[in-house]
Design brief:
The complex is a heterodimer. Chain A is of the alpha+beta class. Helices cover about 30% and strands about 25% of the residues of chain A. In chain A, strands 3-5-1-12-9-10-11 form a seven-stranded mixed sheet, with helices on both faces. Chain A is globular, with a radius of gyration of 27 Å. Chain A starts with 18 loop residues before the first helix and ends in an 8-residue tail after the last helix. By secondary structure, chain B is an alpha+beta fold. In chain B, strands 2-1-5-3-4 form a five-stranded mixed sheet, covered by helices on one side. In chain B, α2 crosses α5. Chain B is globular, with a radius of gyration of 15 Å. The N and C termini of chain B lie far apart (about 35 Å). Classes of the chains: A alpha+beta, B alpha+beta. At the A-B interface, α1 and α19 of A face α2, α3, α4 and α5 of B.
Chain lengths: ~775, ~160
């Protein structure tokens, strides 16, 4: 396990190779694809959150201008059902047809589909599909869905409880018996709508036996698998392409109904078919995130030593279990609850529950933001209870740097870390010591000021395949890479990851460039096309791409490098140990004039006239890398807010983040990921919430009603980092895609509660909107004036 | 009834017959195949469809193609001149203001409009100007940096008509 010696491009702020097409408008997103003779789909979606479908009359719609076909759920049932990738013990899975056949289970559940020669014609005809519904009682709240007498979403399961996921470690009874202080808090992690800027879109065409499918997906290979399985097309005749994909955040991490219905119809009609989501449609039919309620108790000594934590969580799954939904609520949540702390005992239980709402699935962080929020809010509640500085409470309980690899009470093995180092740097960069003076100055202006910390640990590098199997995730956690060096020396890299904004073309080029002694610009990285890639790619989610997919690329490059070394040693009559790669050449250490150009050595492998005995011609490598452990990035975020007592409006006055994602391949990209992640978490903390009425109607059903943060809502951030390499992979990398989202929400909420603590306020649930704060301030009796 | 319109797009005059209900963004994407202009919402919130209409940043989902009759429209495809990128485009790359790229064309157009009106915008002015352009990836920080950098290079800005 060595870090690449003398990295040149690893660690460099290389400008992104993706950008030229993005800044000129020449990139091709799925909806940009136009094919001859193409028809358009429009889905008829249930206006009821829960209703029996008594009759679907398509006759009138079929006669409308431009209409090619109209299908009910029964007509499309041959697509089969949507997959679930999770098999945790006792899970109760419902059947999930792409178009509902018997009942609509949430407002937005598809009940019919219209095909017409234009989007407008399909949309107009959709209004003519006559569906007779028998409305049924509705339940939108997960706790209410567990109550006796609640409407049952899937009667064949006999319950709304999809699964119970308990985990215990240490002696929890003793922890609470020994406690000198117990803080209890109910925490609501509200439902969010991911809002990737590009709406989902699917295009399919059939050419003889060949089906080509373009989709806005983070997992093209899984889409290929299920299109092949469900539609009965041999896998080698299904090509799935994720072209330019405009953000995902987990909302494109699924095998969606439309990804089966579009190719199904392309095959039936023998014509290309396109469906592009309207944004309001997406608010109903693209997965939501979070929606968990936690009842938490934290046991501790008066000196701040934490002893044990108990949490009972109810997680809303929506009307169906989407592909990964239960993972966020269970596996990715339960084990990481102890966070950065030495927690001797814990007892966490999650209930995942069906309701009449849009299905939930992974949303940036997926279970880990909820866990970080849980532990970091509780640490602040404890600090408040015992009158201890929140930074000191954290430091006191941190897993110590010499304890790694550290086995948590939840049986995870943290790879590496120095939590106090990141905390100290964050306190210094945020001028934590100077806060009291800033607060006094703010209060003189008649406003409240608060400071909040969050010291998170997250779990990345998903995942060792055996761990997946043991935990009940129905597929391995490896990633694939293929590198081909062509006879004329051009380098092509195929990755099983499927970026949608993360810049893998750039970062993977940097990794390969360092192995070959060439420039990143000399390397082409290809992704998101099942045609030429390795047989399986797992895809991009869970901050896994670099720590698993990047390592696969690195290993493939090493394999090619080893072959080049042997050949160069043979051609240059030198020892393999003395071959150096630099500046596009291979030369003998200390004798740079004894050299061959990179392309010249490659060419010899195809010429095959002068190869060492036993060496195969050609230069190609395929690697499937299965990680040996997860990786555990960490950091401390410090947020400072000002609150206007007259309006309840929160302004983020300062924000400092010190993150450690191990070795950074491209710091520019790392910072960009953090900026975006932090703003998404600020969105959750202050602005965003998906709100349903009691009838299951989504009240925040458009961008007009749901507050995606704008540039005017957020400040610029101060970022810094520490570097604690991961020992579990040869590059020492960990992952950064979700860190901002995981670290920031508790820091913001802790800051707001700190600001209002003078009013006796101990906790407020997200989102901390002006209305919520104004009410809290108005209702609170001023406890005392700060002296 | 289709109506005849004539719009100059990126310097080329296009005369077409269009339905009165056709949006400018649909005209650009579907009739002219200028797919650099994106559609990210249906309530005029996201700004992904922003183009210059007679030099002014305009959400192309809020304008009918027939309303744009007789105007000059610039889309992201028309910003570079003779293969040389517009300073805002360049700055979006050098400052890493782009991640998934979907909001980028609209964001760039809005920035071009801002710099044409205000050669030295402050951070607050920039943030105010791009409030109508949503980005879910970048957190806006590097977009603000890019617009600052492009404004600093503003003397080099040529080829963008400014209507005052």
């Amino acid at each position: 396990m060595t870090i690449t010696e003398h990295p040149k491009y690893i660690g460099m702020r290389v400008m992104r190779k993706e950008d030229p097409r993005l800044i000129t408008g020449t990139a091709t997103y799925t909806d940009d694809i136009v094919l001859p003779d193409m028809v358009h789909l429009y889905f008829v979606r249930s206006p009821h959150a829960h209703a029996r479908i008594k009759r679907v009359d398509t006759a009138k719609a079929k006669k409308a201008p431009g209409v090619v076909a109209v299908l009910s759920g029964a007509d499309a049932a041959a697509t089969g059902t949507l997959p679930l990738f999770v098999n945790v013990p006792g899970i109760k899975q419902s059947k999930h047809f792409p178009i509902a056949t018997d009942k609509a289970r949430y407002a937005g559940d598809a009940v019919a589909v219209v095909v017409a020669d234009s989007h407008g014609a399909a949309r107009a005809a959709a209004a003519l599909v006559d569906v007779e519904y028998e409305p049924l009682p509705v339940v939108v709240d997960a706790e209410q869905a567990l109550a006796p007498g609640a409407p049952i979403i899937h009667p064949e399961l006999g319950t709304n409880l999809a699964c119970t996921y308990p985990f215990k470690g240490g002696d929890i009874e003793k922890a609470f018996a020994d406690a000198e202080v117990v803080v209890k808090q109910r925490l609501v992690n509200q439902r969010l709508i991911p809002n990737a800027m590009e709406p989902r879109s699917v295009v399919a065409k059939i050419d003889g036996n060949e089906l080509t499918l373009w989709s806005t997906t983070q997992i093209p290979h899984f889409v290929q698998l299920f299109v092949a399985i469900n539609l009965g097309i041999p896998q080698n005749h299904v090509r799935v392409i994720a072209p330019e994909v405009g953000g995902g955040f987990g909302s494109k991490l699924n095998v969606y109904a439309e990804e089966l219905v579009v190719p199904f119809l392309a095959k039936q009609l023998g014509r290309p078919v396109k469906w592009t989501e309207e944004r309001r449609e997406g608010y109903l039919s693209t997965t939501h995130g979070r929606d968990m309620v936690h009842d938490v108790e934290l046991a501790a000594k008066r000196d701040g030593t934490i002893l044990g934590l108990r949490a009972r969580t109810v997680a809303n799954m929506g009307g169906y279990l989407q592909a990964f939904a239960p993972v966020s609520a269970t596996i990715l949540h339960v084990f990481i609850v102890p966070g950065a702390y030495h927690l001797p005992a814990y007892d966490v239980e999650v209930k995942a529950v069906y309701t009449n709402t849009t299905p939930i699935d992974a949303y940036r962080g997926a279970g880990r933001p909820e866990a970080a929020y849980l532990i970091e809010r509780m640490m602040d509640r404890l600090a408040d209870e015992i009158g201890m500085d929140p930074a000191e409470l954290r430091r006191k309980n941190f897993v110590k740097p010499d304890a790694f690899p550290y086995t948590t009470v939840s049986t995870l093995v943290y790879d590496s870390g120095d939590y106090a180092k990141a905390l100290d740097k964050a306190l210094e960069r945020s001028d934590y010591k100077g806060f009291a003076a800033r607060r006094d100055e703010t209060e003189r202006r008649g406003r409240y000021r608060g400071i909040g910390l969050s010291s998170y640990v997250e779990i990345c590098g998903l995942a060792p395949s055996k761990a997946n199997a043991a935990l009940g995730i129905g597929w391995g956690g490896y990633e694939s890479a293929r590198i081909r060096v062509n006879p004329l020396g051009t380098v092509q890299v195929w990755t099983g990851t499927s970026p949608h904004g993360q810049g893998h073309e750039t970062s993977w080029s940097q990794i390969v460039a360092d192995q070959f002694g060439i420039k990143p610009d000399d390397i082409e990285v290809l992704h998101g096309d099942t045609l030429e890639s390795p047989g399986m790619g797992v895809g991009t989610f869970g901050s896994r791409s670099l720590a698993v997919g990047g390592i696969a690329v690195h290993k493939a490059a090493q394999r090619i490098r080893e072959k080049l070394i042997l050949l160069a040693a043979h051609l240059l009559e030198a020892s393999p140990d003395d071959i150096v790669f630099e500046g596009g050449k291979l030369f003998v250490k200390g004798v740079p004039e004894r050299s061959k150009a990179f392309g010249e050595v490659v060419f010899q492998l195809y010429l095959a006239a002068n190869l060492p005995d036993g060496m195969e011609p050609g230069l190609e490598a395929i690697v499937y890398h299965d990680p040996e452990n997860f990786t555990y990035p960490f950091g401390t975020h410090v947020c400072e807010v000002e609150i206007d007592p007259e309006t309840g409006a929160v302004e983020i006055a300062r924000y400092t983040a010190v993150d450690d994602c191990g070795v950074q391949i491209n710091p520019m990209i790392v910072e960009g990921q953090l900026h975006g992640g932090i703003v998404q978490a600020i969105g959750q903390a202050l602005y965003e919430a998906a709100v349903y009425d009691d009838n299951g109607q989504l009240l925040t059903g458009s961008m007009m009603d749901y507050h995606v943060p704008t540039a005017g809502d957020v400040p610029s951030f101060t970022l810094d980092h520490t570097v604690t390499p991961s020992p579990v992979n040869p590059l020492g990398v960990k992952g950064i895609g979700e860190a901002g989202t995981i670290g920031a929400a508790p820091a913001v909420v802790n800051a707001v509660v700190d600001a209002l603590s003078t009013l006796g306020i101990k906790h407020l649930d997200m989102p901390l909107t002006p209305e919520r704060l104004w009410r809290a301030i108005s209702e609170a009796k001023p406890m005392e004036v700060r002296s | 009834m289709p109506r005849a319109i004539s719009i100059t797009v990126n310097g080329t005059k296009h005369s077409s017959e269009v339905e009165p209900s056709l949006l400018l963004v649909e005209y650009l994407r579907e009739k002219l195949l200028l797919t650099g202009t994106h559609v990210g919402c249906d309530t005029s919130q996201c700004g992904a469809c922003t183009v210059l209409v007679d030099g002014q940043a305009t959400k192309a989902c809020t304008v009918l193609a027939v309303q744009a009759d007789g105007t000059a429209v610039t889309t992201v495809e028309g910003l570079a001149t003779d293969g040389v990128l517009h300073p805002v485009q360049r700055a979006f790359q050098t400052q890493h203001a782009t991640q998934c790229g979907f909001c980028t064309p609209g964001m760039i157009i809005t920035a071009v409009d801002l710099i044409a009106r205000n050669r030295k915008p402050t951070e607050a002015e920039i943030r105010h100007a791009i409030k109508g352009n949503l980005c879910r990836c970048t957190g806006y920080q590097n977009i603000v940096r890019a617009i600052e950098a492009a404004a600093a290079e503003t003397q080099a800005v040529t080829g963008v008509e400014v209507r005052r």
